[in-house]
Amino acid sequence: MKYIVITGVSTGIGYSAAKVLSQNGYHVIGSVRKEADAEQVKADLGDGFTPVIFDVTKQDDVLKAAEQVKGIVGKHGLAGLINNAGIAVGGPLLHLPLDEIRWQMEVNVIGLIGVTQAFAPLLGAQRDCPFPPGKIINISSVAGKFTSPFLAAYSASKHAVEAISHGFRREFLMYGIDVIIVGPGPIKTPIIDKFPKHEEAPYFNTDYKQSTAIFQTNAMKRFEEGLEPDEVGELLLNIMVSKKPKTRYPILANKFSNWTLPSILPDRLIDKEIGKMLKLDQLPKD
């Protein structure tokens, strides 16, 4: 039996990963924060799924969940850990409340480290380990390599995930635990339903009013045209079964224009084009 832990499986990428992996020989142990979500995902996925309830920002609960999982997997250990749970805080850095930025980092960065620390022994981070070492897959983002206006706080958290992933992978060499980064672009997930109405945003009556409205319209369109979550789930399955996976996988629609081109163009040129598109190249007249 191959066991794998996935955080944040109630919707989106986490749910699709749990579905795909549980259908392909893995017993998925998935984290949710609410009992109702645990029951729903269990009903959907059946015997190949076991829910555990914890919030990645509450380390005492994470450690208790790790003990619970230890009792489930026994001598088999974990074949993998997918750190998927995360949030996206948006808005101009000039006006974002510092508490929101701290929360962004607490969930996406500190939470990921805490989960990894708690489950590492079950992945093989121990002497004389009785089972083969597992893999860790950290869900980053295109934003982990490219920073868009109004998503800088989110991007900062994903840049941190990239750095942490490389650090863990090198530090885990002695245990044989591999660490892989997956960086999705826009995916058709319920995150688009969570976007606040523009007129309700705290920065609505600032100089960024017009630019953020354009940005939000464009973002909604990109998410609606994004990849299906199951495509990410299939990639995660391929990584898990691969003997020599890459260290990082971007996955997004229109890869050349949305990934390759921005990575090679000069920063100043990208600044200029973004400024024109979002009307950030001059102060609004009204």
Give a summary of the structure in a few sentences.
With 286 residues, this protein is α/β, with parallel strands linked by helices.
Task: Please give a structural write-up.
The model has no long low-confidence stretch (mean pLDDT 94). This protein has helices spanning 12-22, 35-45, 59-73, 98-123, 152-171, 209-224, 229-241, 255-264, 267-278, and strands spanning 2-6, 26-32, 49-53, 80-83, 135-139, 178-184, 248-251. The protein starts with a strand and ends in an 8-residue tail after the last helix. The protein has a single domain, classed as NAD(P)-binding Rossmann-like Domain (Rossmann fold, 3-Layer(aba) Sandwich), CATH 3.40.50. It contains 9 helices and 7 strands, in the order βαβαβαβαβαβααβαα. It has 286 residues and is of the alpha/beta class. Strand 5, helix 5 and strand 6 (178-184) form a beta-alpha-beta unit. It has a 7-stranded parallel sheet with strand order 3-2-1-4-5-6-7, with helices on both faces.
How would you describe this structure in keywords?
single chain; 286 residues; alpha/beta; Rossmann fold; 7-stranded parallel β-sheet; 9 helices; 7 strands; 13% strand
Share of helix, binned:
40-55%
- Mean pLDDT figure: 94
Radius of gyration, in Å, reads 20 Å
Summing up helix and strand content along with how strands pair, one would put the structural category as alpha/beta
Enter the CATH topology name: Rossmann fold
Q: What is the total tally of β strands? A: 7
Break the fold down into its secondary structure elements and pairings.
Layout: E1 2-6, H1 12-22, E2 26-32, H2 35-45, E3 49-53, H3 59-73, E4 80-83, H4 98-123, E5 135-139, H5 152-171, E6 178-184, H6 209-224, H7 229-241, E7 248-251, H8 255-264, H9 267-278
Parallel strand pairs: 1-2, 1-4, 2-3, 4-5, 5-6, 6-7
